[in-house]
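Archive entry: two folds, one per protein. Generate the first.
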Amino acid sequence: MTNEELVTAVLEKVGQRDNVIFITNCMTRLRINVKDDAAIDEAGLKAIEGVMGVVHDRPSYVEVVVGPGKVRKCADVCAEMGIPTTGTATTENSWKANKEAVKANQKSNPVRNALKIFGEIFVPLIPGVIAAGICAGLNTLIQQLNPGWADNQFLSVLCSFLGLINTSFMTYLTAWAGYRAAERFGGTPILGGMLGLITGLEGINTISQTIGWFNADSPLNSILRSGRGGVLAAVLGVLIMVKVEKFIRSKMPEALDIVFTPILTLIFCIIPYIFIVMPVCGLVSSGLCAVVQYFCMSSSAVVRIIAGYISAALFLPMVAMGMHHGLVALYTVQLNQIGYVTLYPALCMAGAGQVGAAIAIYRKAKKLQNDRLASVISGALPAGILGVGEPLIYGVTLPMGRPFITAGLGAGFGGAFVMAMQVAATTWGPSGILGCFVMTAGPHGGLMSVLYYAIGLVISAIAAYLITNAVVKSEDVANA
């Protein structure tokens, strides 16, 4: 089926073109808003060739999973047909929305809402995180593979370029976080960026030395120092700043607003930010990193193995409960505090578990002549191997139920292995095979860390395959 035919078939099953309000796309799916929800033929959509899954979790809205790459082409077809969109069609940052689709019946609570806010702030930073992390990983691999790289003009310049890209993000991470936080909280983004940037400036050390809060023998243990509190301080500080800004603006004459509101906002906020928010958030950040480091980089292999298994096995259920937003904040804190991420490599094993489970189901589907299910899996597997798991999750394992669980149980074995080997990442975002490029921060060196990560993927896939093959019944596959 061509892309044009696929779009036509989808439109037919959602009540024809006249029933559509607008269509946008994310990484793997078409997002369709309609006038009459009753016109949506969910079963008909699932039966269309090329459709990997359907998420219909709220009235007048349905998401049709067609896979990465193809979805953009289908969106272009929709645009050519004159179907409106709510904005420019994009694939950026779409994984969050894809995964949140499974939470349709969840009730809000303060913890989940707070974690969601962190996700909304940090997820748009992911393109920069990935670019910086991959450059750092490649830089490490080049230098380890070529001991004399500094004497080679080409390699020396190349490593400098890669270092510049990584530094451009990492050096100003608190500024990016502050800018995004101000956007999220409804303040002036540039003011948020300025407050975040102040966090990492050398002037903070001067102030700390002046008031006697700086520990010259151990700067990292200072009550106040440059970078203290990191992104957590930036987010909390900007939250306070936005409230101050809104109050000042409400009292300021319009003619004076553009001049005096920004300067007064920063003046009133910078003192409590430096003397209260940064030290307090510094304690929190250090505590979070210490706890994660204890389990992920523990001197006890048994502790690391147990932690790795549990974290990998429970990752997708955590996504289903909406708890994964907090992990984004944790990754950022680790990256800002220690320069690498320890938990992420184990969590990447969840995707490999999905691949192994899907292969087991595929073999059963072929044997039972369930061609539709086999076709969905064969179309989704390449993306899953590369680290894009949504087509497999929403088109195969989650709808079937048991494979979603067996995939996690199998992934746990890979998670236990990579954490036992103390694999660490230079960033988060890339997973699957593509994740190899960022798994270079372990204590065993970049090359060995990449090798251990790849072995972990294989272990996860094999274990999930064996468990799924043993647990999932033939009748479940035949009726899927």
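Generate the second and append.
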Amino acid sequence: MSDLARPPIALPRRIPTWWTQVRLIVDKDLRIELRTGEVVTTSTFFAVLIVVMASFSLYSGAASKRLVVAAVVWLAIAFAAVLSLGRAWQRERDEGALTGVVVSPIAASALFAGKATGLMLFLFAIELVVIPLACLLFAVDLLEAGPGFLLMALFATPGIAATGTLFGAMTVRTRARDLMLAVVLFPLLSPVLLSSVAGTRELLGGASLAELGDYLRLMAIFDLVFVAGGLALFGLLLED
């Protein structure tokens, strides 16, 4: 039999590794965001508006900054996170994109990790604008408080992203999805938000980074619980 008459040899199909699958999901979200800018830009403007309005209405001198700026920063980030989630999942709903991702040979846990990582990067970008702006408007020394803010953000943001990704998937097919997401998400975020607010208040009151250990440990436990829960349950939430 000649070579032209031989049937083609079927090559074995190679499934990407778990880490490669996560990277593919993150790369997809980042490329879309770099092209459109709709998530980070919209959410950042919203968070900036909250900070600016609070600075005009609540700031009454140096004595109030410790009590006000902590709440303003984390409330702005929390609302920006909900807005970012709504915009990010809107992309997956459009033209059945989510269905295409789900039926692809990508593990549900890798999809969760990729979506959560992308959201976490978006939130870090928003925080890079919101935190310095809040420090400027509320007369906080950024050089002095900056390391503490960075540490609080590193512990709080992964939990916010993991929780939002997990329950964003749960509400993606509901009609009142944005309302349901806010109703479900904010009570669940209360431990990490309260810890962030209390830790930031103590930081601005002169506490050292070592004295913030209890707040950081509570946020770390929250992060671990929802990251582990998302990796285990995300596939069930995506099922019809």
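Annotation attached to the second fold: The first helix runs from residue 18 to 36. The mean pLDDT is 83.
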